[in-house]
Amino acid sequence: MDFLKTFGLFVATALAEIVGCYLPYLWLRQGKSAWLLLPAAACLAAFAWLLTLHPTASGRVYAAYGGVYISVAMVWLMLVDKVRPSMTDWVGVAVSLLGMTIIMLGRRVG
Length: 110
Description:
Blueprint: H1 2-30, H2 37-51, H3 58-79, H4 87-105
């Protein structure tokens, strides 16, 4: 159950990071309101805070988080950017999730 809780926390963290970066993109590239920078800053602060909620070493957390981030980014690509990921994109997602799983469930030394 801890694995599912950690995975869910990673997904929330990835969404906070992606939204925190997407909102300034809308302002800079699509001419949207600069007011979008306020929720963007809040999302990036939430992203940093969410990363602190893990009880394990930060380096391990950041490494494992990368796999989930890649997965969430591909879903974002489909749902928000309306771009269909390729088969190699999905293979990359699978490989990154396998790596994340190995890191999180692997034997701990020290």
